[in-house]
Specification:
The protein is an all-alpha fold and 834 residues long. It is built from 41 helices and no strands.
Amino acid sequence: MEDKLYNLFVRNERAVKAVYYSWWRQLQQQKDKGATCILQLFVDMTGFKYTIQDTDLLLLSQDANHLLEENIFKSPFERLDIMEDSHFLANFNRFWEYVIADAWKELLEENDWFNKSVMFAIALANSNCDECVMIGALIAVHFLPHLCMARSHLMNDIERVSCLGDHRRKSSLQKKQNYIDQICQMLIPDIKRGLQYLKVASIVMEQIFQTIIAFPELILIEYDQLDLISAGMHWKNRKVVYTALKCLKILMMDYAFSKTKEPVALFILKNETQLTGIMETFKTAEQLVLQLFLGALGTLGNIPLSKDTAEKIVLKMFGTNESVLNMAIDLHGIYYASVKPSAEVETSALSAILDVFERYAFPLLSLNAVVKKLWIKGFFRKFDGLFEMLSNAITQPNDDFITSCTAHVIYYCHHLLMDDISSKISPFLEVIGSVTWSLIHKRMDSFVKGYPKCLNKTASSPHLYNLLLSCLNPENNELYSMAGVDCEAYYMEILFNNLSHVALNATSYTVLFHTLTTIYNFDSIAHITEDIWNQLSEKYYTIFFHTRSRLRSYNVGIDMTLMKAYTAAITRLCVLIEINNTSGHVFTLAEYLGNDLRLLQRMNLSHESEGIFYRLYKNALYAAAKCCLEKPDKRRPGIKLEQFGKRVQEFMAELVAQLNCKDCSFAAGMHVANALCNMLILTQETYTSILPAPLKRMTYSIDSEVLQKLAIYIERHVFLGKTGSDEDTNYVLARKLMLATYTDVYRLHLALPQQTDTSHILKYYEENKLFAEELEQLLNILFEKNSTEFYSIVMQVIGDYCKKQKFSTKVKQNAYTRRMKHISHSISLNVLSI
């Protein structure tokens, strides 16, 4: 040959086929010379500047390590980049295709030179030189597919001679088959060694992939070399790992690899821990790994995965990838179907999800997303399991989180059920999933049967009870009817057997508020609620007056049983009257409360109970004023309306004094704020002027100092308070209501310096998206008062804010300015629309 093979492959000047024929002719003429050319190619690929001598062929056979360490490794070395030379690699591969796959018969007839080539490649792969190990692996992995192809041709010949009955010829061919098998088995361990080197690993793994896909039965079954794939996954090389996963994915396809599918499925499950680790290390590999688990379990049946893997699969449900989420749910269901009785699969699966949800503190919306996917996939075909799960959780100590989550799941599943019915009856709503009327009826029937009992069990827990009670909504009446529910009978059972019972026995303000509100809202659906309301009203007043009659100077604040009964009585009346008062006893109640205001400090009530007392007194005064307006000419013997003015002044003084309390809880503060804000409206001349003469004395003169204190009080409880969590819906709603109530006062008493108001409101508007609507109302008031001054103050606020924050770049300053201008522009548009 006119040049070395290495140079010819690098320069890419001649066709590889021409190079092959040139080398082949030399091999036929001089066997040793042809073999020397191959060995020289391998040496050149390592980067060592050593020239193979004729004597090296004998030395290779006798002591390959000596040849490497004493001859080659002591020669000059220059690092090459053949791994990045695609032309060289393509030429190198094509050359061996001609040599081994195409000329397989010639190779098997005269293989001494090839034996030396294999021996030298193995020696390189097992040396102490990293460059040589990489080249040895590279050579081996290029030999392997062509040897497999040669074997395939050989097997065709063996099949032909078997049909002819030529046993001698068959025996000769089988020896050649054994020879190829031995060479392949010798090369495979050296191929694996190359995977530890980043420089060559991706090339080696790609060749492994191509070889396995081309000859799956030979490599995976006859040679039993699935470990080639696990070796690729071992080194955490992203590209190599993805190639290995891609290989497994293709092998799991039914139509192409039916004979190897089961061994591959077993391999996947045996290497479950390794695959799970890959899923954790490479997030983008999640989908591939989960597909492999699903395919393997689908092939072999429901074989349980490990608990650790099962938990990691649950974690994937809380991700954002839709495909990953769906597969994780499928795997989760398969896992629990394999380890639990069928009746416990859903609840066990949900318990595991809630456990992960708690430990990793995911947001509530992510749990909703998971539950919705479970729902669409056919989980929770009945509510029975969910109700039972909640019932059991309530009885367990220190299990509040799981109990709350289970109640939320019931609430959310009911919401999804209502959506399913709506989508079925409305032509404008898109049906999610393949929901059928049969499934809707099954779910609805189980909910209606289990809901009343479950509601009773949660009555002692305000949070759980209020959450489940929100499922009872008169707006769903039509949807219930479409699902086959006898609404009148169902609502009668709930209202009489559940809600009225709770209303008579509950002492929690929030439980009473939600219960009585629900009863009142059902008046348009079930007219029996009017009877229930009147009965409750009569009993509430009777209990209060009876309890109040037992209070004496010697037992006020001392008889704790009596004080507890008093607290329960005022709490129930407070809620009832605020929603709707139907009793004429409200005037007497107001007189009693006026007297009790003077005894309040001696009663030793909790801060929250004191707040409820203030709110009840306010509600009683409002109800009394309403009665007077509705029936101004009605005589009320025994009622001293002329004393109301004095009592109101005392009440207002007490409420204003409460603004100085800086350590009261939100539970107490929300009642104080509600009472004072409402009273500041009731006692102003614009309202009292239309009241009967005796009540006109209720007018209260307010000064700016009180308004300033009220603003600070509201600010502290709405924006600065530490009680509760922003994800607690009831807490957020209560804060929004407090701010909305304050807005009515602010509109009536616009007395504070506008700049102070505007800067505070803009600050919170920017930082608290939860209260955007309420804060916009406050800004609207300021804008309506003086739009020019409003814009001026906004710009001043921007300037002050930028100075305070010490903006380092003009870009940030401009961004904040644009944001504030956008806010002020939005406010002006809102006002115009109003």
